[in-house]
Every structure is written in structure tokens, then in C-alpha cells.
Amino acid sequence: xxxxxxxxxxxxxxxxxxxxxxxxxxxxxxxxxxxxxxxxxxxxxxxxxxxxxxxxxxxxxxxxxxxxxxxxxxxxxxxxxxxxxxxxxxxxxxxxxxxxxxxxxxxxxxxxxxxxxxxxxxxxxxxxxxx
Length: 131
Fold this sequence. Notes:
The chain is of the alpha+beta class. The protein contains 4 helices and 5 strands, in the order H-H-H-E-E-E-E-E-H.
């Protein structure tokens, strides 16, 4: 009996972890976070473009991590799904109490304001255009 309970508990944990990544939201707060991220100008512009070229693949926000006792942020990715796989482009942190959105550089572990990130991104795009 203990083995059955343990196995069921383990399967429940595995299943819960597999569903942690969600683009719909499982409660009011998650839905609000996803709505905010999906409303970012970059998201809206890219998805409008994809619609005009009749693409069937659109960017969506996915919650990767929810707030904990030590970290009060939602971690959200911008991804597209192709052939059952998610391809992630950007990461954001959303404060669970203020809903302040910050860009999260996963590679460097650096968080920056959206304003900073946009300035940096625009600068990099201009540099690429010149070269």
C-alpha cells in the first residue's frame, strides 16, 4: 500500500511540474500577469506582423515560475510553439504585488527595467543595421 501511495504522490508531483508552464493561467493573478506580458508593444507588434503574413504560429507568454517565500516574482517567457516544442525568445520578471514588469537576462542573471532593455535592444539593432 505504501508503494502505491508513494507512486501516486510521485506521479502527482511530476504531473504538477509538467503543467507549471502555462500560457492560460490557473488563477486570477496568473491570468493578469499573462495579460500584461501579452499586451507589451513588442508582443502585439510581432503577432500583428505574423497575422498579416498568415502565419499560424504566434508568440505567447508562458509562466515558468510562480512566486515563492524568497522570491516574489513570476518568471514569464515569450515563446512560440513549433511541432510540440517551445522556442523561447525573452524572459520577464513580474512583481506579484505591484505587477511591475522587468526584463530578465537569463544568460547573465541580470534584471533591467523595460526602458533600459528597450534602449539596449534598439542600440544593438542599429549597430547591426550599420554593419
